[in-house]
Each structure stands twice: as C-alpha cells, then as structure tokens.
Task: structure prediction
Amino acid sequence: MADVAFWGYGFAALGFFLFALYVFFAWRGGLPGGLLFVAVVSSFLWALGGMASAHVSSGVLAWVSMVLDVARGGAWFLFLIVLMRPLWPGRMRWPAILAACTVLGQVLGLIAEFFGDFQGAAMRPVLVAWLAHAVVGLILVEHLYRALPGASRWGIKPLCIALGAGYIFELYLFADATLFSRIDGDVWAVRGLAHATLIPLIALSGSRNPSWTLRMAMSREMVFHSTALAAAGAYLLVIAAVAYYVRYFGGDWGRALQLSLLFAGLVLLGALLFSGSQRARLKVFLSKHLFSYRYDYRNEWLRFTQALAMAGKGLDLGQSVIKALSDLVESPGGVLWLRDSYGKFVPFARLNRPLVDVAETEQSELCRFLSDREWVINLEEYRVRPQPYGGLVLPEWLSTLGDAWLVIPLKSSETLVGFVVLSLPRAPFEIDWEVLDLLKTAQRQAAGYLERMLAAEALLEARKFDSFNRMSAFVVHDLKNLVAQLSLMLKNAERHWSNPEFQKDMLETVAHVEGRMRGLMLQLQEKRPIDPPRVVDVVQILRNVCQSKRGQLPQVELLEPAEQQAQAKAHPERLERIVGHVVQNAIDATEASGEIRVRLEAVDDVCLRIVVEDSGCGMSADFLRDRLSRPFQTTKSSGMGIGVFETRQYLNEIGGDLQFESEVGRGTRVTIQLPRATLARDTIQDGASEIHAG
Result:
C-alpha cells in the first residue's frame, strides 16, 4: 500500500496547498481567517510529510510526520475554539484546557514512544493520545454546532460536517490501532485522501461566513462535483474492502470472486455516474442540506440564457426552451405548444416525449387561465387539492398524459405565446415559492425568444409575398406592353390582312409575344431570374427593340454605332425589356409626327451608354425629382408607374445607372449606363460558369 499512501498524501498535499493559496488571497485580516490559513498550511505540511515517509522508509521522516500531525491537530483545535468564543462568552476556559491537554498528551505520547519500548505492550501511549485527539475534536465540533441557534447553523454546517467526518475517520483508525496495538496500513494509506475530500466543505463555510473576514466564493457545481467524487471514492473503498475480504476468505474461488466483484462494482459505479436521476437526487440533497437557497441564481441564469442562445446546435429553439426549463426542475423533457396565425395553440416541439397531436384555442379555459393568472400549474397538486386554482377545469387530453407534471405559461408583452408541459422529474422535487419565482422569470425570457422567432418568421413570409407581388407587378407591366403590341397588330389587320408581308410580320409578332409570355410565366413560377448575367451584344439588343416597335408611330430611329462589337454584362431578356420600356415611354409621350432617336455611346473601357431621345411632351422638374423613380407614379392615364422603377432597380443590380433630362414641351433624354464587358475575360468566365453548372 506504499504507492497508495504516496499518491493519497500527495493528492492531499496538492489540495491543501491550493486551498492555502486561496485562503491567503481571500484573507482580509480577521483572526478566524488567519487561524484557518494556519490550519490549512499545517495540513499541507502534514500531508507533505506523510507523502515523504510513504516514499522513503526512514524513522526520522516518520517522526517528523507525527510532529506535523500534532501541529495540524492543534491548529484546527485553536480555530474551533476561536469560532466558539463569541458563542459561549465566559465558558470557553474548559474547551481550551481540554484541547491543550489533548495536544500535550500527544506530545507526551511521542516522547514516551521515542524513549520507551512499547512494541509488545497491550496499549501504546501514542495511539491512546491520538484516539483522545479524535474524541476531543468530535466534542468541540458538537459543541460548536449546538451553540448556534437553528436559524444560524446554515453557515457553519459544512465545516461541522467536514471536521466531524475527519475526526470520525481518525476515531476509527486509532480505536482499531489501540485495540490491536498496530496501525492498519490500508486505512493509514487512504488517510490523506480522506482528509483532502473535506476541503470543498470547509471552503463552502468560509464563503458563507463574512465574520471570518474571508472573501471567498464556493459554487454549487464545485460542491456537487466534490461530493460526487468523494462518494465515488468511498464507494470504491467499500468495494475494494469487500473484494479484499472475499479474496482471502473465499478459498480456491477467492481471486475469481474478487475480480468479478470489482468488475461489477465498476460497472455499477459507471451506471450511477451517468444516471440523470441519481445526479438529480444528489443535487436536490445538497441544495436541501447545504444551502439556504435552492439555486445559485447567477449560474442558473447564465446556463438558461446559454441554452436558449445555443439553439440550432443539435436542438431547435423550441426544444432548447423545453430543455432550459426542464433543467431547472430536473425534468427529462416535455412538449411545447405555440400560438399559430389562426389563434390556436398547436404542438411545436417536444423533447424526450412521444408526439402529442392536440390543439387548444385561445378562448379555452386552460389558455385563459394561463394568460390571466400566469400561474404554473402543478398537476400533482391539482389532482389532490384543486381549490387554489379557482375552479379551473383542465382539458381531458391533459389528464391522459400519464407523466405530465407542470404546465408553464409562456407570456411576453401581455400576450400568451404558448405553454410547456413538463414530464415528471428524475428525482422527488418539491415545488415551493423559490421554484415558482424562478420558473416565472425564466418563462418570460423564453417567451421573448419565441416571440422574436415568430415575428421573424412572419416578417420573412411577408417579405416573400412582397417579393412575389413585386415580381407579379413587373410581369403584369410586361404583359400590358405585349397586349398593346397584339392590339396594334389586330388594328392593322383590318386594313392589311391580305398583304403577305403583313401576314409574315404578324406571325413573327405572335411568336415573339408567345415566347415572351412563356418566359414571364416561368420567371413568376420560379420566383428568381431565369438565367445568370452573361456577355450580351448591346447593338443586337437595340436592333431587336427597334424592330419590335416598327409598327408604331413615330418611327424609332436607330443610329448605328461605329463600333459594332459592344458587349455588356447583363441578362439579355431583362436588358431588352427595360430598354423596350424606355423606348415605349418615348413613343407614348411623343406625337406621331415627332422624333425618337436611339444610339449607343462607348464612353470608355468600363461602361457603355444607351441614349434614348424624344421630342415629346417632357416632364417637370418636380416630377423628375419626387415621383419619377417611385413605384406606381405615372403621368399616363393607362400606365402602371413601375417601368422606371424596375429599370432603375435592375441597373443597380448589375452596376449600371439611369439618368433623365427633361423639360416640359421640349422632350426627354434618357441615358442608360451599362458595365462594359471585355470579351476575352468575360467569355472565359461565362464558359467556366456553364461548365460548372453542367
């Protein structure tokens, strides 16, 4: 057991060293805090001496370790006496004398052991002295605890538990040693580890007692994990002791039974450590017996908000809300109902629960109760004592959920967003005022998250409809122009129906209109541009636009540019459509005897300009400034007022621009600026895009 003793005392030395640093930096000059620091340092030196004597077999180190043990015991006695002094004024003489006599007895026992030969004696003085030390320590702890009124024991309770457990361990060790005149090596080996497990409880008392003038804080998580670790260690010690007994008293089967028992013990320990119900039981036990308040509100709130913020990483927001609320009361999960657009509350999310397909209207008695009272409904309490709920009649489906436990409203901005039904907890859990207040605060936070989620979804849906309606308006505008072309063709058909050239032109116009209408319908169905931008021949687009307007008056004159290779990066059909809009507006604003000219200007290597000039009625400066680019603003009796808006929007998308110069009675000049495409670069990019798409 030398290795076990070395590592056990080493772990204790490390723990007391770190705790000593913590106490030193937290000390604010008070006597109890200073004595606690001395006691912790003495414990560190004792554990260090025990580790050294376990590693090196030396009589000197063994005696040094025992001397340090006496100093450690005396320091803790002094600390306890100082804590008791304000509680028993005038009666502290006998505890101080008793503690001093005990320490003196230990010193005398060491001296007697050093100078005398007690190896064969029935009772060795040094063992009796240490046994008396354990008994006196228990007496001091008991008197300290009893001296406090019941309402004030919360702060000192962890310290009494820790020191009492340590003295009980010492009592067992030295009582056994006194009876058999020898120390049990196995128990001695784990002595340091046993005392190290008491550090978290001592620190917890330090954080609860400002009168010690220590600025210390001990989180519930630390207490929980330390207690779980100590319990696991005690469990393993019991399993090891039983296995040790089985091996040496089990005959031929002893070793096989020992291995089987150790394996079964480890499997059971793993099951307990990973059991949510056992962890919940331990948390409830610690909160009930070691803390005056059930929750560490700072940590609970941080954990709650983090759980809501982590939505999307394995759990959606609804499941995150259920988990965050259920973790507050040790519930494994539940079901969330949310209000839909029709005012009904429908199941939205579930966690560790089967699907429940039941809806509640906002006028139902349950929803009205949750909205008006904002009470958490405890179904167990409701079944036994329904009077506090003011005659509430729960729906039938709620009573059929066998493990339903709590109904938590989710209310934000004076509106009931939804409610959560949680399942029964993993461990018995008492619902008191503290739990109800925490759940009420938490549900407000969760309801705020859910309300923002619903608002975002409604906004997204509204934007989709807005986008669809805007595209529909553009399509209707294009259809209006196509219908105008067909109307003009039918009007001319009465006079030219027998003309072969007119018939040919009519068929071409019908085919063109049919193709345009099919493309518009496809664009409306897919709700996106049909093709990506690519290199287009702007000259050819201008020719197509002028050709499509040839049957209208005044005639559109296209001034062919000297440069016949002018390319831009755009969508061919959309660019032709917006140029057609501008030209059609010029035709509508100009008398039949007027003039309309279209020309292309190559400004530089980065942009092109399409200029459309007419001699029509023109527009006022106020209209150009305030109304022209706004949708549904027009000067034409049959116009829709979205052509210019669509043109400007599209040109902004591809990096172009739209400019107007106009004067009433003198015509309008429209300039369409396009980003110029360099043939070599953009042709290669278009080819790569087509290959990638293919």
